[in-house]
Sequence to fold (112 residues):
Amino acid sequence: MRRRAFLFLGASSLSTACIRALRTPTAWQSQSAPPASKMAANPSAGMWPDALGATPAATQEAYKWAAVNRATLRYIPCYCGCAGIGHKDNFDCYVSEIRDGGWLVLSDHALG
Fold:
């Protein structure tokens, strides 16, 4: 009898946890909506703009690395002469805006 009660309690707990998991929004669902930009990206969700997919692999890797290494790129000055368009550092060559929910608006400056 004790064994049945233990199994019943275990099954009830498991089913309750599964139901709650289904009702809880996933990380993707709880993120804010993507920016209205054809260059919107969400690196943590693996979402990249179509325009980036049409570039050489080296360019794609540069954007992907830049998107997650802001702290490093903030210390590397722009070397292409784009300070005239407002770039302060190398990160600005790749990302023009940081939004809520992990969204970025990529700059098309480094696309080539």
Remarks:
- The two ends are 72 Å apart (CA to CA).
- Residues 32-111 form one domain.
- The chain has one domain: 32-111.
